[in-house]
Amino acid sequence: MYGDIPDYSYGIMDYVDDGFLVGGSLGSTFHFIRGFKNSPNDGRLAGGIGAVRTNLPRVAGSGGARLAVFSVFESAMSRARGQSIVYILYMYSRQACTASVFGSLAKRCAQQ
């Protein structure tokens, strides 16, 4: 019975690695642009690099933590149901993203 349930114990670390890399890369891009825009004219590049150096550990760590929590919930639900439920989580997340996009478009159209 329990031989059919996938083991996610090593998957948690994979998710943490991916979250750390994705959070760091996206966060560094965002903070570089923000630091570049908000610094004085003479030091724009230095301002962007300084913003990245300041915020990169925080943003990368939070990305890793978010995906670790996602992996723990995924593992717990898979063990409770007795089958892999990755496709169900992706379906719900896709529907939530679609609903948020169409909801914002509907709200924007209603305001006009």
Compile the SSE list and pairings.
Blueprint lengths: L8 H30 L5 H38 L4 H26 L1
Radius of gyration from the CA trace? 20 Å
Characterize the overall form: flat
What class do helices, strands and sheet pairing give? mainly alpha
- Sheet with most strands: none
Q: List the domain count as a whole number.
A: 1
Assess the beta-strand content as a share of residues. under 5%
Order of helices and strands: HHH
Q: List low-pLDDT spans.
A: none
Q: Report the total helices.
A: 3
**Counted beta strands:** 0
The end-to-end distance, rounded to whole angstroms, is 58 Å
Which whole number gives the mean pLDDT?
Answer: 76
Query: Helical percent range?
Result: over 70%
Polypeptide structure, described:
This protein has 112 residues and is mostly helical. Helix content is 84%, strand content 0%. It contains three helices and no strands. It has helices at 9-38, 44-81, 86-111. It is flat and about 60 Å long.
Name some characteristics of this structure.
mainly alpha, 3 helices, 0% strand, flat
Concise summary:
The chain has helices at 9-38, 44-81, 86-111.
